[in-house]
Hints:
Layout: H1 4-18, E1 25-28, E2 42-49, E3 52-59, E4 62-69, E5 75-79, E6 93-98, E7 103-107, E8 110-116, H2 120-124, H3 138-146, H4 153-158, H5 168-178, H6 192-205, E9 242-246, E10 249-253
Antiparallel strand pairs: 1-6, 2-3, 3-4, 4-8, 5-7, 6-7, 9-10
Helix pairs in contact: 3-6, 5-6
Amino acid sequence: MPEGDTVWNTARVLERGLAGDVLTGSELRVPQLAATDLTGWRVAASASRGKHLLLRLERDGEHRTLHSHLRMDGSWRVYPPGARWSGGPAHQIRVVLRTQRSVAVGYHLHEVALFPTADEPRRLGHLGPDLLGDDWDPDEAARRVAAAPEITIAEALLDQRNLAGVGNLYKSETLFLRGLWPWTPVSAVPDLTATVGLAQRLVASNRGRWTQTTTGSLRRGETTYVYGRRAHPCRRCGTAIRKAEQGERVTYWCPRCQPGPTSTPTT
């Protein structure tokens, strides 16, 4: 699943390709919007909120937001007019937006919706502080995490109602760097503010580039400590990294650097 920095980067691509331009054509290939034509609307801005993408449109004093979510497999691509679209098969295209200088194509998008921009706070108000937003507040994020002391810290970091923008990669890497076993109950985490603060710094450090790293290296195979490294030696202690299902997601951890019960299921 795309992490918050990937969605932020995608919003910047759409900003550069569309912002300030008037749409000369549109195709919304989702049932609820199939008859909608956005021709004549100007793209005022492109923004992200956690893992949500928001294209803000205006025409004659009216303001609307085209909302999409990438989930596991969605993406946006921007092409010059006449270029070949290479983002995936045609049947996965959900949105096409045309201007005189660009064509934006949304592949396998989820939760596509069009609503008045004034409704954004109501529709997205359930989200926690945005890791890459002006509203980032580590104390508020920690307060929200602490409100459910019985759940695991891994689940709490992934809950977008606590903090918006963490996915499996940053969850696993944050917990490794904090020395926390992923199944540790929130109530047993010694410093929640430091934990959510580290998650934010990791995400922010990759803003503006597509290669994500938590180790500081951009070389292939050296970008993470535990994520995607099942059975590989820990970079700190040499112990084999483990992987296990946790809820509907997967978790990577080092059993020595992040000690917990030895009966944890692994794959």
